[in-house]
Each structure stands twice: as structure tokens, then as C-alpha cells.
Amino acid sequence: MSKILVTGGCGYIGAHTIADLIENGFNVISIDDNSRSTRYLLDGIEKLTGKKVKNYKVDLKDYNDTRAVFQENEDITGIIHFAAYKAVGESVEEPLMYFENNLFSLINLLKCVDEFNIPYFVFSSSCTVYGSPDIIPVTEQSPIKKAESPYGATKQMGEEIITSVVNATETKAILLRYFNPVGAHPSCLIGELPIGKPANLVPAITQTAIGKIPSMTVYGTDYDTRDGSCVRDYIHVSDIAHAHTLAIQYLLANKNKTNCDIFNLGTGNGVTVLEAIKAFEEVSGKKLNYQIGPRRPGDIVAIYANNNYAVTTLGWQIKYDLHEMMRTAWAWEQKIKQDEEIIKDQKFQYN
User: Fold this and answer.
1) Which of 268, 280, 310, 350 is 20 to 30 A from 63, alpha carbon to alpha carbon?
2) 12 a catalytic residue
3) In Å, what is the CA distance from 100 to each residue of 25, 108, 213?
4) Is 15 left (phi over 0), alpha (psi -120 to 50) or beta?
5) 255 occurs within a structural domain
6) CATH code at 232?
């Protein structure tokens, strides 16, 4: 079995990807400093797969501690790098924190990739690299425009750093630019676990519906869209996770076209914020308490993917529609309410 290192393995997409990798025969280890996560999702992976995943509680900004993981695991075949801060609004308020965390951690990881001759590297990128696109849907050839947030800028810089490194080494990379991951594993054993007030739409919806927060805000209904709210491409997290497994398999089979191949991961459908709320209300039978607020700094008007390249090249298929995304997200929210005390006991260490 090939050993894959997943950074940010205790996080939302990382945990789903670990589960998918295990189900497809890979041996997996994790690095996660748990500064914005707990072991709760790793416990869910163990229940789901029957495999206990070793997590190294290491801050990737610490080069020596990061290097020690590679010294202990000389048989790592590939890396999937998720570990990063990811809230657009927070990045606008705390840009230096985002540049330091997201870029220093990537650079230290790539130093180890070079020293230990790791052949394959998959990067968790984002549609934010396209900025505010002139034409949608965006393809992998769409222009990279000025990022609308420091978070998006770190993804753009991360892509440039990786491309430069793989062009100077034997490592092959894939950049996965995904859109808006939502939902939870159908088993309800793993899902999204935001800390504090959620910055993303679907956790805000489910937390409002369950009463964890009294109401949510729709940021802007005066955009040039069909109902005035922002348009996004929501995609189920399990579909996103499986694309990472396919990316590793693609690299292992030496199918890459270049040293650094790029794939968009989205459904290809643009959904407005108000349409997403309506879909949740239909699935849950609950009327959501929300208010209309001003536009939020860092938000773009509309973006959704052309995913043809991932479908035809990786053999990727979308399995979950919007209603299934909302159904699993709501089931997960109810599950973590039952496990509230267990989660509290694990204590988030949020700086």
C-alpha cells in the first residue's frame, strides 16, 4: 500500500479525503497541529473505516518538527496538502497571519519534499485564484486575476511556489482548484466542525436552524444576479474528497501531462445564496431565520466551474446534488449536537 501524508487531516476536507483514501487501499498518516481542529473527525474515520490514523500534532511552520515526521516515515509516496487558514473575511482582517501561516507551512513542506525525494504532491487550491472572473463558467485556462482577499492571494502564491519547485525537481504535482465544499459524509461520522461563528454559508444555515445561533445574515442582495445574492458552485465534500484519491492514482499511474497539472472541482452549476437557503428549507422542513445585510469585503459576485477536464481526465463523477448536500449537512448538525459534550472535552485551541 502506498503511504500518503495528509496535512490538515483533522479538518473538514482532509478527514473526508483520508476516509476515501483508506477505502481505496491507501495507508494514510496525518499532520495537524489541532489549532483549529480536534481529533473528533479522526475518531469518526476510525469508526467508518476500521483504521486508526496516526496524527502528528505538528505546526508546519516549525521546520525541524516537520522534518522529523519525514525522518520517521521514509516510505511516503505522496502528500495531499490541506493545512491552511481558510476564512476569507478573517484574512481581510488579519492578512499577515494568513501569509505567514499558509506560505511558511507550504515552504517548509516543500523543503522536505525536495530533501526526501517525495514523488507526488497534491495541493488544496481554490477557485479564489480566478479573482472576480469576466466570463463564467471558469475553465483551467481562465485568467488568474488579482485576488479579492489575502486568503485567495495565498492560494495564488502557493500555486506559483509549487510550480517553480516541481519544475526544478523530480516531483510531480496536481493543483485542485475547488469551489464551495459543503455537506457531510452520508454516514454522519465525519463532517464540518467550524470554530466559533461560521464563516461559510452552509454551517451558518444549519447552526441557525438548530438554534446554535439566533439568525444568519445574507451578505448583499443587490448584486447583478437572478435574485440579487451571490452565486457560488456548491459541491459535496465527499465528491471533492474522491477527486483527491483520483489525483493520487493519476500521478501513480504516470498519467500527468505536465509537471504540474491543474483541475477545477465544481459541479458546473451556479447557485445563489437565497436558492441554497430555499433548498435547505425544502429538505429540512424548517423556515430559516435570516436577515439581509450589506456586502461583505472579499466576496465576488459570481463564480462556478467548468469541470469537463476533471471529468474526462481523472474520471471524476459528481454523485450528490444540492438537496443531498443540504440533507447530509443537516443530519451532521443534528449528530454533533448530540455529541456536544464530547467535542467540548477535546477542546479547540483557537488562537
Assistant:
1) 350
2) no
3) 35, 12, 31
4) alpha
5) yes
6) 3.40.50.720
Quote the pLDDT of residue 351: 30
Q: What CA–CA distance (Å, rounded) separates 300 from 290? A: 21
Number of domains in the chain: 1
The pLDDT tens digits of the residues spanning 35-92 come to 999 899 999 999 999 999 999 999 999 999 999 999 999 999 999 999 999 988 899 9
Closest CA to 277 of 191, 192, 199, 206: 206
- 45 is written with which cell numbers? 474515520
Residue 113 within any structural domain of the chain: yes
Torsion angle of C-alpha atoms 67, 44, 282, 266, degrees rounded to 10: 30
Each residue's pLDDT tens digit, 232-279: 999 999 999 999 999 999 999 999 999 999 999 999 999 999 999 999
DSSP letter for each residue of 265-322: ES-S--EEHHHHHHHHHHHH-----EEEE---TT--SB--B--HHIIIII-------H
Name the least confident of 90-99, 218-227, 279-288, 333-342.
Answer: 333-342
Region 307-328: what's the mean pLDDT? 98
**Which class for 77: exposed (0-12), middle (13-18), buried (19 or more C-beta within 10 A)?**
middle
Cis ω on the peptide bond leading into residue 137 (within 30° of 0)?
yes
Range of the domain at 337: 3-346
DSSP letter, residue 73: -
Q: How is residue 271 written as a grid cell?
A: 447557485
| 351 is a domain residue | no
Q: Of 98, 151, 219, 234, which one is the catalytic site residue? A: 151
Which residue, among 40, 51, 50, has the nearest Cα to 10 in the 3D structure? 40
- Residue 185, in any domain of the structure: yes
Check pLDDT > 70 for residue 30: yes
What is the rounded distance in angstroms from the CA atom of residue 315 to the CA atom of residue 304?
20
Q: What is the pLDDT of residues 164-186, one digit of tens each?
A: 999 999 999 999 999 999 999 99
